[in-house]
Amino acid sequence: MSELFDAVDALVASRSPLPPAEERKRLRQAHGLTLDEVAAALKVRRATVSSWESAKKPTEPRGQEREAYARLLKQLAELYPAPTTAPESTAAPVPATFTDTPTPAEQALSADPASEAAAMTAHENTQTAPAPAAAPQAAPRPARTTRSTSTSRRPGAKKAAPAGTPAGGSDPRFENGPLAVVDVEDGQVLAYCTGGLVLDVPAKSIPALVDWTLREAKLGQPKLSGPGKDADPLLVLTEAALERYGLPTALTEEERLAGRLPEGHKVIKQLARAEWKLTKRGFGPWARIYRPAQGSERACVQLCIPSWHALDTRHWGEAGQLPPAELARVLGVYASRVMTPRGSTAVTGLELMTALHPATRASEPDADGKRHSEHNPGSLGKDPVDCAPCEAPDGHPLLKDLPRFHVRGPAEKLFEEAYDWARSMTDAECTLRHLVGIDVNMAFAAGANGLPVGLGAPTHVTNPAFDPKLPGSWLVDLSHVDLSKVKVGKEWVELDGSLLPGPFTPKGERPEGPAWYATPTVAYAVELGYEVRPVEAWVRRENGRYLDGWYNRLRDAYLATMADLGVDANLSPEDFLAAMDGYKERDPELAIVVSAVKATVKGGLGKLRERPRGEGWRPGEPWRALSRPTWRPDIRAAVISRTRINLHRKIVKHAAFTGQYPVAILSDCVVYAANGTSPLDFLPYREGKPLPGGFKLGINPGLVKHEGTQTVLWGEEVRERFNAPELNLARYIKDGTVTDVDNGE
C-alpha cells in the first residue's frame, strides 16, 4: 500500500502549482538568491532555472524538480507576500535641494557632448564650504520598505538584493537612486528605479515629468569629490514612454544625422512655454533640460533615449532592448560604481575625470565671511591650454601656416599609439601546434595608474637633460637602441632582436633618426641601458598624478562587477582560467556593465584628443573640443606610451627567461606559439608563482587573461589565403573568424 501512496504523492507533486514566471523571479530576488544558488540546490543547470523565470517563454519543471521548486517558492511566498498598491500620498511634494545649477553660459553651450558636459559643471557654488567626498557604493544593500513622496509600487521588501543590484543611497535627497527607467504599463506611467523600486508617475507631459523628477522622485547621486557637484537625475525613456509623451520612437535619417529633433517639435515648444531650456545639444538621445540658476538650487534633468541609439551597442550590447527593471539594474550598477552616465561611455569617462578633480573650489572666507571660486589644485583648471606644436593633430590651428599638402614626419609630430605588429613565424614555431593569445586586463587604465601628467601649459626647452619624472614631449634619436643586447633589471642579456617589436613605434619599426616621444618612451630607452640626448622638448613643470582617482574608481568598478560574475581577484591561475570560461553567461546584465566600464576607459582617454566632427570644419580652424580644459593630447599620448612600454617590458622579460617571442601584437593582445591550448602551456609558473615582471594570469588591471587559441595551421592558412605573410593574427585569435584583411584603421 505504501508504494501506492508514494505513487499518488508523486502524481500530485508532478502537478504542483507554480506562480507565473515573473513572480518566480521576484521571489528569488527578494530573498537575495542567485540563479546559481537555486540551480545548485535543485541539482539542475543555471540555464534551466533561468528558463523557468523567462518572461517571454517560460519552461515548466517536471517530476522531483517541480516538487522541490514548488516547495522553495511556497516558502519564499510566505516570507515575501505579493505587494499591493500603496494608497495615494497626501503629503505635499517637497522640492529637492541641489548644490549647484547650470549657469547662464549653458545657454550657449557647444553641441559637442563632452564640451557641453564640462560647461554644465562649470558653475561653482561659492557660498558653502566643500563637503567630504562621498564614498562609492561598494555593495548592494536591501531595498527600503518606506514610501517615497509619490505612490510607489514595490515587488516586496528584500532581505538582500541580487549581486550587483544597487539600491537607494544613504543621502535622503537621492534615496530612490541615481536614475529611473520610465515605461507605460496598462495605461499607467511607471518609473523603474534601482533596487527593485517602482514609482507611479503622475506627469502627463515632458515638462511635468521634469518637474516631478526634481520635486518628488528623489533621484540623483551625491558628488564624487568635495568641491564637486551632485549628479543630475537621469530618466531613461522607453518606446512606450516616448509615445505617451508625444515623442517619436525613432529619429528620421535627417534627425539622426543632426542628432536632435527639429526646433519646431511640439514637445520642445511645451518645454519653452514652461520656461525649461535645452542645451545646444538640443533634444537628442542624451538631452539635458534645465532652468537658469536660482541661487544655490540646481534644476537639471538628463534624458537617455535608447531607441534613438543613446546606448551604443558596441559598448552596451543589448541593454537598450532589456525590460525596464533589468535596464534600471544595468545602468544603476554602472552609476553606483562609475558615475551616472552623462552621455556615451567616452563622454562619461571624460566627465569622471572632472568629477573627481573639479576645476574650482570654494575659497576660505574673506573679511566679510564670503567664499569665492578659486582654482582647485591638482585639476586641469577651467580654461583650455594650447598643446605643443608637435602634439597638435593635423588640421590644428597651430599648424595653419604649414603648406597645404605638407605631411609631417616623426621629427615634427608626436605619434604615440598602441601596437599593431606582426611577423612571420620561424621554422621552430611552425612545428608547434597552437597559437595562444593573452590579453592585458584594462591595459590603458593600468597605464594611467601612478602616471605623472602635465596640469598646465608646456614650456619649450632646447638641449635639455632628460628627466624621466618630468611629463612632456622630447625630440630625441633612439635609433641606436639595439634590442639584441639590453638591460633587464641590472643585468645585460642577449636576445634575438629580429623576433621582437621595437618599443618606440606602434608598428614595431626601428627609428631612423630623431623623433618626438612622450616621457615614458624615452625613459624606457634609458632603462634598457642606452644613453639619450634630446635635441629639444616641450615639458610641463606643473604636473601631478591627475588620473590616479580615475583609475582607482574604474578599477574598483571592474573588479567588483567581475567578482559578482564569479571571477575573484585572488584565484589561482587554474581557477582563474576556469572562472573566466563563460563568465558572461552567468549574468548577462552584469556582463554588459563590464563592457561599459572598459569602454569608459578607452573612450575617456580618446576624448582627450577629440578630432573635428564635421559641421563645416576646415583645416586650420578651431573645433569645439579645443574649448575644453580636458582637451589634452599630451595626456592621452603619455598614457598610450606607458601602456605600450609596460607591455614591451613584459615581453622582454618573458623572452629573456624562456626564449619565446611573440608572433603578433594588437593593442593589448599578444600571441605566442605553443604546444598546448592554454596560456599555462607557455607562461613560466613555478609552484603557482609567475615570472617576476613578466605576464601573470589574473583579473586585476595589468594582469592577463586568455584571449583565444587557434592552430598554427589556421594561422598559416589565413596568411596564405590573403597573401599576407605578416597579417596580424592577434586581430582574429579570439574566434578565428577572418572575413577580410583588416588594415587596422
Structure description:
This protein is an alpha+beta fold and 745 residues long. 30% of the residues lie in helices and 13% in strands. The protein has 22 helices and 23 strands. Strands 1-4-3-2-5-8-7-6 form an 8-stranded mixed β-sheet. Strands 11-21-22-12-23 form a 5-stranded antiparallel β-sheet. Strand 2 and strand 3 (188-193) form a beta hairpin. The longest helix is centred in the C-terminal third of the chain and has 26 residues, at 633-658. The radius of gyration is 29 Å and the shape is globular. The model is unreliable at 85-152, 154-160 and 741-745 (pLDDT under 50).
| DSSP strand content | 5-15%
Helical element count? 22
Give the number of DSSP strands: 23
Largest sheet: 8 strands, mixed
* Gap from first CA to last CA: 78 Å
Strand order of the largest sheet: 1-4-3-2-5-8-7-6
Rg measurement, Å: 29 Å
The percentage helix is: 25-40%
Q: What would you call the shape? A: globular
Structural class: alpha+beta
In round numbers, the mean pLDDT is: 87
Low-confidence stretches: 85-152, 154-160, 741-745
Question: In summary, what is this structure?
Answer:
With 745 residues, this protein is an alpha+beta fold.
How does the SSE layout of this entry go?
Layout lengths: L1 H12 L7 H10 L4 H8 L3 H7 L10 H17 L33 H8 L31 E2 L25 E7 L2 E6 L4 E3 L5 H10 L18 E4 L1 H6 L8 H6 L7 H8 L3 E2 L9 E3 L9 E5 L8 H4 L7 H14 L7 H12 L3 E3 L10 E3 L44 E3 L4 H4 L3 E7 L2 H6 L4 E2 L4 E4 L9 E6 L7 E4 L2 E4 L19 E5 H9 L8 E4 L3 E2 L3 H17 L8 H8 L2 H4 L1 H20 L25 H26 L5 E3 L2 E6 L29 E8 H10 L24
Parallel strand pairs: 2-5, 5-8
Antiparallel strand pairs: 1-4, 2-3, 3-4, 6-7, 7-8, 9-10, 11-21, 12-22, 12-23, 13-20, 14-19, 15-18, 15-19, 16-17, 21-22
Helix pairs in contact: 3-4, 6-13, 12-20, 13-20, 16-21, 17-20
